[in-house]
Specification:
The structure is a homodimer. Chain A is an alpha/beta fold and about 525 residues long. The first copy, chain A, contains 16 helices and 18 strands. Chain A has 3 domains: about 1-105, Winged helix-like DNA-binding domain superfamily/Winged helix DNA-binding domain (Arc Repressor Mutant, subunit A, Orthogonal Bundle); about 160-375, Aspartate Aminotransferase, domain 2 (3-Layer(aba) Sandwich), CATH 3.40.640.10; about 380-515, Aspartate Aminotransferase, domain 1.
C-alpha cells in the first residue's frame, strides 16, 4: 500500500514531524481505518525517500499518542481502540475545515465591553497626542546600571514566586515618598504594586462592584476607567466637572459603590479639585458609604503652586483608595504603578491581586526600588519637570503668537493642556480635521482618551494638546501649521488665496467645512 | 398606614433626597419589608406636607435603584428581589449603628473569594513543595547578556505603550514553537502575552463567565484556577479524574460556560489525558458549545514517551483556549505566559487584555523573544530536562529503597510526582505531620495547591513530592528522614525504640498518631 503522503524537504517542519502529522490526519480523516496494517518502516522510508529512522521515530510517537499499535514482529496497525464516534467527530471536523460553509456555532461570550484607545505607534509629523513621553528623557544610563546590578544580585528572585502585593523594598520606597509628597502616611502593607492605573481600576472593580452597582464618575472622564467599570456592568453615573474640578453638589445623594475621580488634575481638563470641595467630597463619601478611587496619575508634574494633599491624605475614615503610576514619570514600558488601600481593605486587596496574576515581574520592581531609594528618582523628576515646563511655556507662547489671548486650562501641572477655542475659531472636531491635513495631530475631548457622557461643557470647543513628547522646535512648527490650516480653511470659505497655504501644502485636498467662521491668522 | 418619616425643610438636602434616604433606610433596616405595599404618592405627600411630585420622584429613584417596584395601577411595593449587596449593607449598617464601639461603617465590599496558596519563602530543610525551581538552573549568563543587549536597543520601547497583546516578536517566537512542539498551528495574532497562567484564568473568566455561569473543572484541580473561577461567582461542577485523566463520561450533558482541564499532566496527579478521551472531550465541547481552557503548564518537561498533541492542536472547531507559561521552564519571577485563542475570539480577548492592564512590561518580553529565537531556550530546556530527570529517578529510587515497590504517578513528565501510599503506611495528612517533625515538607492533596472538592479518590492516601528544587543528596536525605519518621511513629505506637530515631532526633516531641499501622522501614 502506498500511503498518500508527501514530504516537503524545504518545509520548516522536520520530515519526521511532517510524516507524523500526515499519518495522524489520514487516521482522523478515515483514510487509514482502525485495524489497518501500516506499511513497514522500511517500505515507507523507501517510498518517501527518507531514512528508516525518520519513519521509526514518527511511528513511535504515533504509538505513544495512541494512533498506532505495534504488535511486535507482526507489524504496526492503526489502533482499534479509536471509537467510531470519535472518528465520526473527526470526519465532521475535517468536513467543516474543508467545507465551503464556515458556520461555527459558539456559545455567546460573556464579555461586553470596549477597550480604551491606547497611544498607538502611528503618529502624524507633529503629534500633540496625550500620554506620550519623550524617549530622550528616559534615564537610560541610571536604569541600565540599576538593571545590571540588580540582575547580578538576583539569587532565587527569578526562580521563586514573590509577594503578590509586590516587592517589599519597592513598597517601602513608595510609602516613604507618599508622606512628604502627597500627605499620605501609610504602611508598606497598604501598598500593592500594580501594572499601571488600568490594573488598579480592575482591582477596585473586583473589590467593590457587583453587576449593576453604581459608579459615580467625572464627566468627562478618563476613558480607560469609564470603559473598565462599564465592562463590569456597572451603572455609570456621570458627575459634571467645572474649573474647580468635580462638581461635588451634583454627586448622587444615595452615594455609589465607587466614585472615580482625578483630583490633582482632572483628566483630561486639567482642573485641580479645590480643597473646599475635597473636604465636602470626603464628607459625602463618609455619609453615603462610598469608596473613592483617587487617580493621581499626573501628580509628579506640578509647575505652579504647591501640591494639594491627596484626598487619601485628608481622609480619616478609610474611604479612599489611591492610585499612582510611574508610566508618566519614567515610562509606560515598565508597566509599574501602585494602589494604596485603607487598612481595613488590605486583606481583600491582597487576595484580589494574588488571584489576578500572582504579582509583578521581579526585575523591574527591584530596579525601581533602587531608583527611588537613591534620590535618582527625585533628580530625574527635577530634570524632566524643567524640560516639560519649558515645552509647556513654548506651547502656550506659540498659541498666543498665532491665536491671540488664548484660554487654556491645566497648565499648572501635567503633560498636556486644554485649549478652549474662542468663538471665532472652528469647532474642535473641525479643527482636528484641518490640522490633520497639515500633518498635525490635535485632540478634541472624544479622541483624547476621554469619555464624554454627553451634556459636557467641553465637548465642542476644547482641544487637548500633549506637549511632553515634542521638542520646542516641533511645538512651534506644529502650532504654526494649525494656524496655517485655519487660515487656509478660511480663505477657501472666502474663495480667497493664502500665501501661507502656498508654503505649506496640505497633504490631501482640503475638504473640511466648519460652522464658525475662521479667524484671520495674526502671526 | 403612617410611615415613620419626617422631613426637615431647613436641611441642605432636598426634600426629595431626604425622603429617598429615609425610605431606603427603612427598607434596609427591615421596618419596610419586601413585598409591603407603600402608601400612595398622594397619601404620603399629604402626610408629609410636600408636593406629590416630590414623592413621585423619590419613588421613581427608589424604583430605579431596585428598592421599590411599581405594578401599574396596583400600587408601589418594596421589592421582593433586594439584591445581596443591599442586605449585606444592611447587616453592616445595623452593626455599625448599634455598636457602641468605633466600628467604622463601610459599604460591604463585593469581593468574595480566597486567594490560592502560592509558594512561600519559608521552607523546611528538605522541602518537596510543588512548583519550586532550583535557582541554580536559571540561565543567568544568557539572560544577563540578553537583558543588557535588549536594553541598549530600547529606543522608545520603555517610554511608549506597546501592543497590549504583547510584543510581536515574542508572539511570533511562541507561535513558531507551538507548531512543532504542541501541534498547534496559529498566527501570532491569536497569542496574548500574559503574566502567567493565573492571569490567563482571569482573562478567560472575563471573556466567558457571567455571575452564576457553570464551570466544569477537574477534581482535584489546580487551586489557583478553582479559586479564581469561584471568585467570579461561577458554579463549579467538579469532574472526577482517573489514571487516564479527566473522566470524560462524567462531564455534564448540558455543557458549561467553560471547562478547565490540564490534559498534558493533570494537576496535581500527573495523569496524561489519553488520546481517545481527548477526542471525546472535543466532541463533547462541540456538541455542548463549551469552551475548553487547556492549561498546559508543564508541557516542556516530558521525560518518557513523546508529547501528545495539545487539545488545541486537535480541535478544529475553535472550542479550545490554550494556556502556556514560562514560570516552570525559566522562572516565575519573569511573570510571563501566554494565552492562545481561536481566531473568532482574537478581538474580544485583545480587548479584555487591554482593559486588564494595557499589556506586559517590555524588557522581559523583548529578552524572552531573543531567548526563544536563538535556540537558547531549547538548549536550556534540554539541560534542565536532563537535570530534573535525574532528580526524579533519584526520588523514585530513594522511595523504593525505603518503602519497597511504591506506586507513583506522573513520573513521565513534570516537576513532581504523586506517591500513592500503600495500605500499611499512615494516611497522607498524618505522614505530613510526621515528616514535618523531621524537617521534611511533603504534601497531601489539600496542601499541594490543589482544590479537593471532596469525594476524590486521592484525598487520603496520596502525597505530592516536588523534586525540581532539591539536589540528589537532598532528595536522598529527605526520603531517608520520611522513613525515619515513619519508623519512629511505629516504634512509639509499639512502645519500642528505634536506632534510626536516635540518629535523627525529631525537632519536637513526636505526638503524631496515625490510624494505619506503620510498616517497618526496610532500607
Amino acid at each position: 500500500m502506498e500511503t498518500p503522503i508527501s514530504l516537503d524537504p524545504c518545509s520548516r517542519h522536520s520530515l519526521q514531524a511532517q510524516l507524523h502529522e500526515q499519518v495522524r490526519k489520514l487516521i482522523l480523516g478515515g483514510q487509514l481505518r482502525p485495524g489497518m496494517r501500516m506499511p513497514t518502516s522500511r517500505a515507507l522510508a523507501m517510498q518517501l525517500g527518507v531514512s528508516r529512522n525518520t519513519v521509526l521515530l514518527a511511528y513511535e510517537r504515533l504509538g505513544a499518542e495512541g494512533y498506532l499499535q505495534t504488535r511486535g514482529a507482526v507489524g504496526t496497525f492503526v489502533n482499534h481502540d479509536l471509537p467510531d464516534d470519535c472518528l465520526a467527530a473527526r470526519r465532521l471536523a475535517l468536513v467543516a475545515e474543508n467545507g465551503s460553509q464556515h458556520i461555527s456555532r459558539h456559545r455567546a461570550i460573556a464579555f461586553e465591553g470596549r477597550a480604551q484607545t491606547i497611544v498607538g505607534d502611528k503618529h502624524p509629523a507633529y503629534d500633540f497626542q496625550l500620554g506620550r513621553l519623550d524617549s530622550h528623557v528616559f534615564p537610560f544610563k541610571a536604569w541600565r546600571r540599576l538593571v545590571t546590578s540588580t540582575l547580578s544580585r538576583a539569587g532565587a528572585c527569578l526562580t521563586e514566586y514573590g509577594d503578590p502585593a509586590g516587592l517589599l523594598a519597592l513598597r517601602q520606597a513608595i510609602a516613604d515618598r507618599l508622606g512628604p509628597t502627597r500627605g499620605i502616611n501609610v504602611d508598606p502593607d497598604q501598598i500593592i504594586v500594580i501594572t499601571g492605573c488600568q490594573e488598579g481600576f480592575n482591582l477596585t472593580a473586583r473589590l467593590l462592584l457587583r453587576e449593576g452597582a453604581s459608579v459615580a464618575i467625572e464627566n468627562p472622564a478618563y476613558q480607560g476607567a469609564a470603559y473598565l467599570y462599564e465592562s463590569y456592568r456597572a451603572r455609570l453615573a456621570p458627575v459634571a466637572v467645572d474649573d474647580k474640578g468635580l462638581c461635588v453638589d451634583a454627586l448622587p445623594d444615595a452615594g455609589a459603590a465607587l466614585l472615580y475621580v482625578t483630583p490633582s488634575r482632572q483628566y483630561p481638563m486639567g482642573f485641580t479639585l479645590s480643597l473646599e470641595r475635597r473636604l465636602r467630597l470626603l464628607d459625602w463619601a463618609r455619609r453615603t458609604d462610598t469608596y473613592i478611587v483617587e487617580d493621581d496619575y499626573d501628580s509628579d508634574f506640578r509647575y505652579r503652586g504647591s501640591p494639594i494633599a491627596a484626598l487619601m491624605g485628608l481622609d480619616s475614615h478609610g474611604c479612599v483608595i489611591y492610585l499612582g503610576t510611574f508610566s508618566r514619570s519614567i515610562g509606560p514600558g515598565l508597566r509599574l504603578g501602585y494602589l494604596v488601600v485603607p487598612k481595613h481593605l488590605v486583606g481583600p486587596a491582597r487576595q484580589v491581586k494574588a488571584l489576578f496574576d500572582n504579582g509583578h515581574a521581579w526585575l523591574e520592581q527591584a530596579a525601581l526600588a533602587g531608583f527611588l531609594a537613591h534620590d535618582s528618582y527625585e533628580n530625574h523628576l527635577r530634570r524632566i519637570r524643567q524640560c516639560y515646563a519649558e515645552r509647556r511655556d513654548c506651547l502656550v507662547d506659540s498659541l498666543r503668537r498665532h491665536f491671540g489671548e488664548v484660554t487654556v486650562s491645566g497648565a499648572e501641572a501635567g503633560m498636556h493642556i486644554a485649549w478652549h477655542l474662542a468663538g471665532e475659531l472652528p469647532r474642535a472636531t473641525d479643527l482636528q480635521i484641518m490640522a490633520a491635513q497639515y500633518g498635525v495631530g490635535i485632540y478634541p475631548l472624544k479622541s483624547a482618551a476621554a469619555f464624554d457622557f454627553g451634556g459636557c461643557a467641553y465637548s465642542e470647543r476644547t482641544i487637548m494638546l500633549g506637549f511632553a513628547a515634542l521638542d520646542e522646535q516641533q511645538i512651534r512648527a506644529g502650532v504654526e501649521r494649525i494656524a496655517a490650516a485655519v487660515e487656509a480653511a478660511q480663505r477657501t470659505a472666502g474663495r480667497g488665496r493664502a500665501s501661507r497655504t502656498e508654503r505649506m501644502r496640505p497633504r490631501s485636498p482640503a475638504n473640511a467645512t466648519f460652522r464658525a467662521a475662521a479667524r484671520p491668522v495674526t502671526g
